[in-house]
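Chapter summary example.
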Amino acid sequence: MGILLAVCSLVCSALNDFLFKVFSGKKSSVGIFVSIVGVIWFAALCLLPADFSRNWQTTLFWGIVSGLFSLVGNLLLIESMKYQSAGVCSTIYRLNLVGVVIGAACLLGEHLDFHRWIGVAAAVGAVICFFDFDKSGAFAKARLGLFLALTASLLRAGLGLSCKYGIMRGADPNAISLMMSFFWIGGGALYCLLRKEPFRASFKGPMLLTGVISGLFVAGIVFFMNSALKYGDASVVLTIAQMSFLGTLVLSVIFLKEKLSAKKIVGMICGIAAILLMSL
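The structure predicted for these 280 residues follows.
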């Protein structure tokens, strides 16, 4: 059951990353899109039992920290896809497991085995494969997308660490999930205002529908992952879920006609190796 639920989380992640790429190519507000996702996320998960009175100070603090990591990380992920392929951005974003493992070793005292150091090296190799040293304008934009995706991945690692640390200190996990949706709703609207993005265009039929579907996928990611962790080993469940970039890659090649070079294939293989080694 745990593996099946983890696969459901993988499918939701792959489809959601693909939708992020589709949306990034439209002239609509990224902020409003994120707000719409947050509203659907909240509506889908608000029925889950959330105890805000349980260690409310701890839950409030770590909910705020996790919300900021989640909001900014996903905003940067969407922005990165304006300049870089969905397969590359999704792969780098899922390599956040490297940051989680290193952060857990430094901040939570967890042991970093030799095979995990090899995993770190494989992750570095994946990024090098995706990096292009050409100085032309087109490749400069691609590098910008790469750096944005790397930053988003680090923030996603911070999200994982903050959630884990908060729950260890007694914070309610469902309450934290709901608080993160609040940050998407309010933070997305603020981002729209600060960037002076087109407001009305985001509420047109196709864009509104994309935001609603993405919100359902995000809710599915959270729900299926939490459910999978109840039934399966964390090392197995998390490894399966992190492989979602392969689904995003396939969808992007088929539907968006993204090119798949030899360097990208090697980078994907390095990414798979990094995740597997980190999860052992």
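To summarize the output: The radius of gyration is 18 Å.
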